[in-house]
Amino acid sequence: MVVNLQIFMEYQLVYLDNLKDSKIEEIYLAYLKENPKKSADIAAFIGSLSLDRQVEVLKSFETRDNYGEILGNLLKNDFTPIRVLGLVYLFKNKLAKAKDKKALFEIIREENFEEFLSLIKDRDFDIDLLSDIFDLKKVKAKRIKLNKKLVKKSRKDLSKTVATINDFVGEEDYGLEKDEEKNLSDDSENLIEDDKTLGSKPESFDGEEKISQMTRNFLGKILDEGFISKDEATDLALEEGLFLNVFINNMNDELYEFTNDQTLVIEGDRVLIDEFYVDMIKELIDG
Q1: Which three-class secondary structure state does DSSP give residue 264?
Q2: Tens of pLDDT along 79-89?
Q3: Which residue intervals of 170-228 are DSSP H helices?
Q4: 78: which DSSP letter?
Q5: Which secondary-structure segment (H or E) carries 270?
Q6: Angle at 93 (CA atoms; ends 88, 97), nearest 5 degrees
Q7: HSE on the CB side for 133, CA within 13 Å?
Q8: What CA–CA distance (Å, rounded) separates 247 from 285?
């Protein structure tokens, strides 16, 4: 009896369509375990999986002689997160070559390389790590570190100098009005503690048009409750189709014009307004 090839192929497709994804994965994985040298096929299979399964399946091949080859093939994937997956484990396992570093610098800034190594050192690949790595594409803001004790000493020295000059030439001749001296003192008060970036407050806030309603609502909730839980913030980010860090960074970009600094920070399981800018944000939101 002659079997019609077209009917047979259609039957195969219907059969595959009715199989559960887990069963299909099991069939492919069994085939690849029996043919472990098919590095390109293994990489393509891993790239087709959900993120949580990618790491688990990839690790099942890490004792194979061609593990580095599998990781190298992941770098050929068109989807950037898959390439990042390959890069993470190439560098974690010290298998990276010069060309791999070049591929990495297409995703992150070269000056952030040490931070990349620090990020991946004790972490497995997941959506949070992926988001943190994507953040390394940005230029890191220069931070000005000031010692509050030295600032206070400088203020005292300044006051002594002013007093000495006033005694010598007379305050009226010197031209330093009392209110000007007070302004010098007030300006010094604005200097901040160690490891804090200087922020400058604009003459007037015009945030009504420049800040999105979503950002205003987010800030308002933090002002009312003191913080937003990381889980709640993540849900809000997902509603916008964004990773949490990208979501927070976008709002910080909106607020940068007003604070010249990172306003929203993630501390543990909470998202907060940096305490240095709380009053400024209140004024911005309240108008």
Answers
A1: strand
A2: 999 999 999 99
A3: 171-174, 178-189, 207-210, 213-225
A4: S
A5: strand 270-273
A6: 75
A7: 26
A8: 19
Please state, in angstroms and rounded to a whole number, the distance separating the CA atoms of residues 19 and 134. Answer: 36
- Report the alpha-carbon distance of residue 85 to residue 81 in Å, rounded: 6
For the entire predicted model, the pTM comes to: 0.48
> How many Cα atoms are found within 13 Å in the side-chain-facing hemisphere of 9?
3
pLDDT in tens, 189-235: 554 444 444 444 444 444 455 788 889 999 999 999 999 999 999 88
Which residues are CB-contacts of 132 (< 8 A; sequence separation ≥ 6)? 119, 245
Residue 37: exposure state from Cβ atoms within 10 A (0-12, 13-18, ≥19): exposed
Q: Is residue 57 part of a domain?
A: yes
Which residue range forms the structural domain that includes residue 182? 148-189
Q: Tokens for 124, please give them.
A: 């497995």
Cβ atoms of residues 243 and 203 within 8 Å: no
Task: Let me know if residue 101 belongs to a domain.
Answer: yes
Domain boundary among 189, 220, 251: 189
Q: Is residue 105 classed as helix, strand or coil in its secondary structure?
A: coil
Query: Domain check: are 178 and 102 in the same one?
Result: no
**What confidence category does residue 17 fall into, taking pLDDT thresholds of 50, 70 and 90?**
low
The H helix count followed by the E strand count for the chain is 17, 3
Residues 123 and 39 placed together within one structural domain of the fold: yes
**Secondary structure element (H or E) that encloses residue 98, with its range:** helix 98-104
Q: Does residue 125 sit in the same domain as residue 76?
A: yes
d(CA 30, CA 32) in angstroms, rounded, equals: 6
CA distance linking residue 73 with residue 68, whole number of Å = 9
For the chain, how many structural domains are there in total?
A: 3
Residue listed under structure tokens 């987010």: 218
